[in-house]
Amino acid sequence: MCGILGVVARNPVNQLLYDGLQVLQHRGQDAAGIATIDGNAFHLHKGNGLAHDVFRTRNMRNLKGNAGIAHVRYPTAGSAVDHNEAQPFYVNSPFGIVLGHNGNLTNTLQLQKELFLDDLRHVNTNSDSEVLLNVLAHELQRESQQYRLDVNSIFAAVSGVHKRCRGAYSVVAMIAGYGLLAFRDPNGIRPLVIGSNQTDDGVEYLVASESVALDTLGFKFMRDIKPGEAVFISFEGKMHDKQCANSPTLSPCIFEYVYFARPDSVMDGISVYETRLHMGEYLAEKLKREWGDHDIDVVIPIPDSSRPSALQLAYKLGIPFREGFVKNRYIGRTFIMPGQAKRKKSVRQKLNAISLEFKDKNVLLVDDSIVRGTTSREIVQMARDSGARKVYFASAAPPVRFPNVYGIDMPSRNELIATGRSDEEICREIGADRIIYQDLEDLKAAVQKSNPTLLQYDCSCFDGKYITGDITAEYLDRIETSRGQAKSTPPADDDQMELDLAMSVTSM
């Protein structure tokens, strides 16, 4: 998962982009980067770590210009620690282009071959985002007239990208001498919104992964960028848009609403916060149906994204809601940390229990989801160590049984605790007295309540149905093999690796 920003303004944008990265930091803590343009010269700074670690005053001073793009990253393809794979990426042929990408291409290997053999282009990293940049550059060259572009040729180039690229991609890019380009894959898997700000000197535009970036930076929400649509904003501030895909369908990743997006964001007409409240309501109804004689004394959320669901569940059941865990906000998320030992240590550093809320009580812990189960197991044990009589566990999402291939670095199938296990077996694995999962149809209904017109979602991590239709068992085997090989290669400096992980790790 990544966060992207793109802006065309009337004044220098370096501080604006930096502030935007701070707001989108939850979408990626592995690396950060900003590229601005002044005249026809790009200014770029990027590196591994959180935004406030990557940028210093001297870096900000060098980021000159009234337009720019920015990116926060966690890795879904390529290396987790190679600073060369931080974004934005840059290419200078046939046009100067910088690009930031949120998502994951599923036909990267095919595109790499095409770029090398047919397009005569070279990529320097294993990142699918650099592949995407070179595909765009080639399509712009193909559509240009004597190496000159206009709005129609830019949109034609995006159409070419849609024909060649598969998977999930929300993109911001700048083309030197022309303007800011933003587009979204034909399935709309990853979010992208646009807003404006009217100034005395004219209108400014901001494109971002989530609406919360518009809110905090003072831009007025205009709309979501549609699946397959491209928006081009000239450096003079004129906006153009066009549908560039043949048969677009809106199928956003449902896990955005479960976990990734900030609760104060609205994406594709859906309030993330409201959706999480609805998830709690549906979970409460299931609990009433299947466990009417429960003996739950208190409902406790596992901070932070499960809090709205737990709150509404407790309200619907008429059971006290309490905060039982204090979160250390200076520890990275634990979900994608390589190595179970590091993850176990991180959970204990990240959360501490308030014994008063557990002692001699039957506790229902509520989390947004259960993925590997390692974190859940540790938290259940923390509750028991704090004096709980019984520990029940509720997941606001259904069992995660399949990898996500569209930009969420979910583990391979044999690492997912729900793969091949019944609810009872999962309950024993995490050490709980009882477990209850959200039903998938109820999760869909919870999302749809905010936007009844949205009828289709990518739920692949729950049901194994991949919306792009190109994911085979062989593809999953290949990425799992690649993942295993990456794990087996020891880092050159173990101490530095552990430091990098502590700073950069992010999770579902």
Topology of this structure?
Elements: E1 2-8, H1 14-23, E2 31-38, E3 41-48, H2 51-54, H3 57-62, E4 67-73, E5 89-91, E6 97-105, H4 108-117, H5 128-143, H6 151-164, E7 167-175, E8 179-184, E9 193-199, E10 202-208, H7 211-217, E11 220-224, E12 229-234, E13 239-243, H8 255-260, E14 266-267, E15 270-271, H9 272-290, E16 298-301, H10 307-317, E17 325-327, H11 340-350, E18 351-353, E19 362-367, H12 374-385, E20 390-395, H13 423-430, E21 434-437, H14 440-448, H15 460-463, H16 473-488, H17 494-504
Parallel strand pairs: 16-19, 19-20, 20-21
Antiparallel strand pairs: 1-4, 1-10, 2-3, 2-4, 5-6, 6-7, 7-8, 8-12, 9-10, 9-11, 12-13, 14-15, 17-18
Helix pairs in contact: 1-7, 4-5, 5-6, 9-10, 9-14, 11-12
Word description of this protein:
With 508 residues, this protein is of the alpha+beta class. The protein has 17 helices and 21 strands. The chain has helices spanning 14-23, 51-54, 57-62, 108-117, 128-143, 151-164, 211-217, 255-260, 272-290, 307-317, 340-350, 374-385, 423-430, 440-448, 460-463, 473-488, 494-504; strands at residues 2-8, 31-38, 41-48, 67-73, 89-91, 97-105, 167-175, 179-184, 193-199, 202-208, 220-224, 229-234, 239-243, 266-267, 270-271, 298-301, 325-327, 351-353, 362-367, 390-395, 434-437. Strands 3-2-4-1-10-9-11 form a seven-stranded antiparallel β-sheet. A hairpin with a 2-residue loop joins β14 and β15 (270-271). α9 (272-290) crosses α10 (307-317), α9 packs antiparallel against α14 and α11 packs across α12 (374-385). The longest helix is centred in the middle third of the chain and has 19 residues, at 272-290. The protein is globular. The relative contact order is 0.11. The model is unreliable at 333-339 and 489-508 (pLDDT under 50).
